[in-house]
Design goal:
homodimer; 148 residues; mainly alpha; Arc Repressor Mutant, subunit A; 7 helices; DNA-binding
DNA sequence: TGCGATTAAGTCGGGTACGATATATATTGC
DNA sequence: GCAATATATATCGTACCCGACTTAATCGCA
């Protein structure tokens, strides 16, 4: 009488759902890896984006991360509070805010260099397969963004 | 003197970022398509998951959507408020809440059947390419989830 | 039978996302 | 020179997402 219904997976054929689910799964893996740094995944991306630069504007960060100031400003303020980044008005154009790593932020960014390797291992895929997936997703993203 | 820095794209080789960016892009496309129904993307997934059933538990929905009750309960309550779903305690096991489509919810779910086609068009990819991408992402997701 | 362990939902707090709007600064046109 | 416009951030409200915890109901087994 074992009449358990089939596993409820009505999303076959929904590529969007596979992207969504992979995003959730990535987020959880990153959470595990980043918790000891007190970082979230988007904050990690900000540190990576700032690494090796001295002062990107909020707008440039937004272009890199596909986010707007309504998301970035509060996040950057939190990171300022935790001492990872500094926010300063551009002296020439006072509208612009330049974000740069503090010494501590640069230190943390340095310690994060092992993360990509750990994530690759967790993904269980070869670098080549990941690379192919990445290329395919980038094409998809570009199309989706152009369709607006 | 046009020394604009190269486009800030320091995320090559980060498959996670491609997944993240594709998720954001999908979300925006769906927002455009779903706004006239007053639906968000996760709410859309719930309607699809409930289509053709009469009463899934919150836990079953969570298994299907990879979400927990802390996310689903408030969302389902919102959908109850907007008249799309009904929430009822199971009469046999009072711990369980069964979620089903209302008549209006079933009606809306019916009208949503054109969405996948619209999204496929927006993706600019062939169904075959999307299918391959989906399979690859599902493997990735499974690995990431197993690595916990 | 009865009570501790398990399970299903719900609550709470913090952190993204994003549409709409506000504010301040810079640029343009006349 | 200065008003109209454009641009860069910031603010606000709503909705996910999740870790940690709570509450209520059921189960298991001595």
């Amino acid at each position: 009488m074992d009449q358990t219904p089939p596993p409820p997976a009505p999303f076959e054929g929904f590529a969007c759902f596979s992207v969504y689910a992979a995003g959730l799964a990535f987020n959880r893996v990153y959470k595990r890896l980043l918790d000891r740094f007190g970082l979230t995944y988007p904050q990690y991306l900000v540190l990576v984006a700032l690494r090796g630069t001295s002062g990107r504007t909020v707008g440039e960060l937004g272009d890199a991360l596909f986010l707007d100031s309504n998301t970035l400003t509060p996040m950057l303020k939190r990171m300022e509070t935790t001492g990872l980044v500094a926010r300063n008005r551009d002296s020439v154009d006072q509208r612009v805010v330049r974000v740069s790593l503090t010494e501590q932020g640069a230190q943390v960014a340095q310690e994060l260099t092992c993360i990509p390797h750990d994530v690759t291992v967790a993904s269980g895929m070869t670098p080549e397969a990941l690379s192919a997936l990445e290329a395919s997703l980038n094409v998809l993203t570009q199309h989706l963004r152009n369709s607006a």
